[in-house]
Inverse folding.
């Protein structure tokens, strides 16, 4: 299993919005960055990720699961843009902020810490375990 991080502005699409979608989840559409798209192409059904509120809050707030592999993004006119579908699994017991991540030496190489603008990014197994520990899980 691989781990990922999905960023969304909570005033546009929040953790609560994803939770409201239930088991059907949501297409993670609208990504127009080649690197982020390529990461989604690497994802497999069953992989897990962190749901991260960007801009407002700047914190990981929940765990998601990939429920559909990369497919054409329904919001894109150009077929080169693809996305995956995700669903909410559970909230983190305690949100983990970007500042918390930057202060944790074990996360010094995490993509979020070094390239916080990328909207979809990989998370290593060790980083995943550290974030869950920081979240009290």
């Amino acid at each position: 299993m691989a781990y990922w991080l999905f960023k969304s502005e909570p005033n546009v699409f929040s953790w609560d919005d994803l939770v409201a979608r239930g088991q059907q989840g949501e297409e993670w559409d609208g990504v127009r960055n080649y690197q982020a798209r390529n990461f989604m192409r690497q994802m497999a059904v069953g992989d897990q990720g962190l749901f991260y509120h960007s801009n407002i809050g700047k914190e990981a707030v929940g765990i998601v699961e990939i429920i559909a592999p990369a497919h054409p993004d329904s919001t894109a006119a150009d077929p080169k843009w693809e996305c995956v579908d995700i669903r909410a699994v559970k909230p983190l017991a305690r949100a983990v902020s970007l500042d918390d991540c930057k202060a944790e030496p074990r996360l010094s190489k995490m993509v979020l810490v070094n390239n916080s603008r990328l909207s979809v990014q990989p998370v290593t197994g060790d980083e995943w375990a550290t974030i869950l520990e920081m979240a009290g899980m």
Notes: The mean pLDDT is 96.
